[in-house]
Design brief:
2 copies of one chain form a homodimer.
Chain A: E1 6-12, E2 25-31, E3 39-48, H1 52-56, E4 77-84, E5 94-97, E6 104-108, E7 113-114, H2 131-143, E8 151-154, H3 160-171, E9 176-181, H4 184-192, E10 197-200, H5 206-213, E11 218-223, H6 227-236, E12 237-245, H7 249-252, H8 266-269, E13 273-276, H9 286-298, E14 306-310, H10 315-323, E15 330-334
Parallel strand pairs in A: 8-9, 8-11, 9-10, 11-12, 12-13, 14-15
Antiparallel strand pairs in A: 1-2, 3-4, 3-6, 3-15, 4-5, 5-7
């Protein structure tokens, strides 16, 4: 079978103003460069859409450089090596790499890592075994300094990161695990996953819903949402509580800067530590993460959900829907 | 000379709504109880007015219980023992204790600590050697995790705590020390104290003023002010920066909850840790504080200022003026 000489890829057609729309994206075909020494040619089987990508669509300085207009988007993907001029990679290998949003990618072998798809699906490496998994583990353990006995609240709890935070906390000795999500179905799913309490944030004021779900207060808040969720968590927080700021999906599509929690000065009297983080800060916890969480995955103690869309041309809509909360668990786009 | 049987004291006449006014306070005379075993009778020579007292005038649950209507206020004071039925205390001893806002106090000896007024004035124990001193030291070292080479910004820098934070940072190897204050005179004083840069926050947008004063950004922010100061500090903060939240004097007199910094989500990408604290959390650092800072006081490396008002009847106005920023250094009311 002859090797592909072209790829289809999604480029950023224009920067979103507020929530992204389909016309911010464009599917193009592009010639692939000839394979150089040290490079591999990969046919992607799955790609990731993640909330953090929304920030990269704005033209602002941040911890990762912004996407450029008319240039392809990128992000996590798993694929099969179809040609290799890189040592250590052979045709048929499954690899995790950073050139998603396209069918076929050419990249240095040094920027790919081989993954074993015998025990876990390719998509697991974009979720529970990948960046979202480490984000959940390191955010809870390092950023929020979790300890056994803590009462934990996580927002966006039905998402890829949040659902793991809750389960890791439960398995690590949390006294209570509370999650919030955006639908009755998601709330039901959280209870299946072993959350002690869960609520639909659309059912009322988050502050009240959280007080009902955690009447004795919380020690740890893992924030994926920001805004009124953060304010509610500060209100319910006990002395010496800790907040890991992981994301602020409520604000990603905002066109005006949000008025942040109005009760922020409570951090003083309650002696609260609030720590923002991005997962790359905790790459040194990768091994500990796999050693701790791996067995829980293998024996079924941890369950993970995926919401799967099919085809590269549906990737923009998958991303748009992710930001609107359409996913339960990891949102994946399958390309094979 | 016969012992006093009465004291004059300031009671809370009514709760302030916004900025306190003189009619929120009332000077009363009250009979003193007979001295019991274990107690001492103290004639106060100096008393403290501190920003945190404003919070205690509201009827809300906080880390210290609220003051009660028609009951005396309290707070730090130094006085002379004029009668003692407590072991270890003799007539003429100088003691630090918590029953300020009155001329004469009766209290258990266990609630007083003897101080040496040979080397330092009585009022030093209410400031540089007392609660504000430990607040500055522990807030900088423990809450903000200061390390040599950090660029440090402190707001309320001409105040009792802020002026010490800046000087301790400079003496501990800060790469740059920046302070903000509310008048040109205070700014000039900060430069005398060795601040590398200082600005009057009334001269423009704090965000712009801070960027001029610290063009390469800051690693540590010691917050005494809150509001736009906190937003500016987040904006100027470098990767892995740390914020110690000590006070929020800009908001103490607010009748509406403030809209907190609109850029709070920057904590994520900048991996910022923000830690609220009250000094009692760090009582275990008392000895380290005295060992570190004591020599700097003795050899003149650290300078401290006082703003002194005379007489118990002027204490309410001293407190009102403190909240309006009338003090340079520690605001003291002298009672002798």
């Amino acid at each position: 079978m002859s090797l592909p000489t072209q790829t289809r890829e999604i480029v950023l057609a224009s920067r979103p103003n507020g929530a992204p729309t389909p016309d911010n994206f464009r599917l193009v075909e592009r010639d692939l460069p000839a394979l150089q020494d040290g490079e591999i040619l990969v046919r992607n089987t799955v790609m990731s859409v993640d909330p953090y990508m929304r920030g990269r669509m704005n033209d602002v300085k941040s911890y990762v450089p912004p996407f450029q207009i008319d240039q392809p988007l990128d992000g996590g993907a798993v694929g099969t090596v179809i040609a290799s001029r890189a040592e250590g990679f052979a045709e048929g290998d499954s690899v995790l790499h950073g050139l998603g949003w396209r069918d076929v990618a050419v990249l240095p072998g040094a920027r790919a890592s081989k993954v074993d798809t015998a025990d876990f699906s390719d998509s697991a490496y974009l979720g529970v075994l990948g960046m979202p998994g480490l984000t959940a583990y390191a955010g809870l353990m390092a950023a929020a300094e979790f300890k056994a006995g803590d009462a934990v609240f996580v927002s966006g709890a039905a998402g890829a990161v949040g659902s793991l935070v809750g389960q890791i906390a439960r398995l690590s000795g949390a006294s209570r695990v509370v999650g919030s999500a955006g639908s009755a179905e998601k709330v039901a799913r959280l209870k299946d996953l072993g959350f002690d309490a869960a609520f639909n944030y659309r059912d009322g004021a988050v502050r009240d819903l959280l007080k009902q779900a955690a009447p004795e207060g919380i020690d740890v808040y893992f924030d994926n949402v920001g805004a009124d969720h953060l304010e509610a968590a500060i209100s319910s927080m006990k002395l010496d509580g800790r907040i890991a700021m992981c994301g602020a999906i409520a604000q990603y599509n905002a066109t005006e800067p949000a008025c942040a929690p109005r009760n922020l000065t409570l951090l003083i009297g309650k002696r609260i530590t609030m720590r923002g983080f991005i997962v790359s800060k905790y790459n040194d916890l990768q091994q500990e993460f796999r050693q701790t969480v791996g067995p829980w995955l293998a024996d079924g103690s941890i369950t993970w959900d995926e919401t799967v869309r099919e085809g590269l041309d549906n990737a923009p809509q998958a991303f748009i829907d992710l930001l609107a909360g359409a996913n339960t668990g990891k949102m994946i786009v399958r390309l094979d």
